[in-house]
Design goal:
The protein is built from 13 helices and 21 strands. The chain is an alpha/beta fold. The protein has 3 domains: 133 residues, Methylthiotransferase, N-terminal domain (Rossmann fold, 3-Layer(aba) Sandwich), CATH 3.40.50.12160; 245 residues, tm_1862 like domain (pyruvate-formate lyase- activating enzyme, Alpha-Beta Horseshoe); 69 residues, Beta Barrel (OB fold (Dihydrolipoamide Acetyltransferase, E2P)). Helix 8 packs parallel to helix 9 and helix 12 packs parallel to helix 13. The radius of gyration is 23 Å and the shape is globular. The chain binds S-adenosyl-L-homocysteine, iron/sulfur cluster and FE3-S4 cluster (F3S). One of its GO terms (cellular component) is cytosol.
Length: 464
Amino acid sequence: MSKKLYIKTYGCQMNVYDSERMEDVLRPEGYQITEQPDDADLVILNTCHIREKAAEKVYSDIGRLRPHKDGKTKNGEEMVIAVAGCVGQAEGAEMMRRAPVVDMVIGPQTYHRLPELLKDVKEQRKDKSSARVLDTDFPVEAKFDHLPKVEKAKGPAAFLTVQEGCDKFCAFCVVPYTRGAEYSRPSADIIRDAKRMASEGVVEITLLGQNVSAYHGDDGNGGETTLGTLIRELDKIDGIERLRYTTSHPTEIDDELLTAHRDVESCMPYLHLPIQSGSDKILKAMNRRHTGDEYRSTIGRLREMRPDIALSGDFIVGFPGETDQDFEDTLQLVRDVKYSQAYSFKYSQRPGTPAATDEDQVPEEVKAERLARLQALLTEQQIEFNSTSVGKKMKILLERPGKQEGQLIGRSPYLQAVHVDLSKENIALDETGNKAYNSFMGRMVEVEILEAGPHSLKAVLVAD
Ligand code: SAH
Ligand code: SF4
Ligand code: F3S
């Protein structure tokens, strides 16, 4: 009898990728995904530790699962609750103490061992011992060597992890502690995964890494491949029409990557390039290793290579010591760069990071006020960027059905969501007599943008 697996994913895209890999690891063990935690045999919470709120949510979700553990599942066994990901890594032992219903805690680098660890939990249950397992080992390499090959593609746009971990140690950030040292996968492994994905109908690949621009994988000839070169290699794969990568660090945008944006058609004109603050004093205190002007100059060079490139970023307001003037410098940088879209957060003190013990913390209400002002400016820029798309023709990849009959949703080259109403189009009927909209799924189509909202665009197909 098949067993049911429920996975909840918090945090970044790397966690989304990891959740899919956990599914791959558990499929041969007879587990199938369910959308409901209530009657699952195994629940995995794949957690995020980046800000306090994200981490605390995990404990409330565990509390909500507790009642389901009392009864037996359809297989006659007690539900197994596993915490994976970055909270597991950072707080494993404490979590075991604080949340007795948790059977297993694993870190981001040990989930390839899930089948063995599940056996351990079950063995220990038979012995009526405490039946709990903690596995938060490093390093990263072992995981990639032991994971099954990337299995089923979930849709035409997919993620592929190429690099993991971070050695940058920004003063606010937990990632170097939760994900470990930087590691790049060999280029041959990535190309093999990408070919397999293409053969399953994947059209767009987003290369993932906490620091993907630092990619320096073994090239199989005793040398290293950079991200720019990897993009050129992946571009040659039949069926792969779009390549994206995230997240990059401003100090690592090298010439090979810049010229890939100019020369490689599948390299999409969009870049997520976080700066965090526009103040040089704060950038230094954050240990970001570059100035505001160096960032501006990188953006300038990117725009020389690809004038239409859309830029996104991350910002932290209220980092310790941030004055009104420092914050004004951030607003000025945003005005200078003009983002298509960006993420912004209030600084959150994270245990174990250098900035957490800084005495010059910014009061909560000041952070809230700055965040509101920054977000108002970013929203204005997003609306402005979207409105410049109206009347333009562009190719989009149709990825999923929309809420309305005949509506499909895709992404523009600039990562905007585009809604296309196919119900008015002259589309053939399928064997059941319905219009064959779904045959458009996973296809690249040319559209004309009709309308722009803050979060999405509306478009019609352009006849070939
Ligand atoms: N590797 C990426 C980002 C990883 S974390 C990079 O270097 O840019 C994603 C974002 O979360 C960061 O860019 C930052 O804006 C935000 N973040 C990280 N730590 C934070 C903290 N302690 N408080 C608030 N935001 C934080
Ligand atoms: Fe965190 Fe900085 Fe590394 Fe990004 S570069 S993951 S913000 S330490
Ligand atoms: Fe969160 Fe870990 Fe990603 S802390 S942002 S899930 S790397």
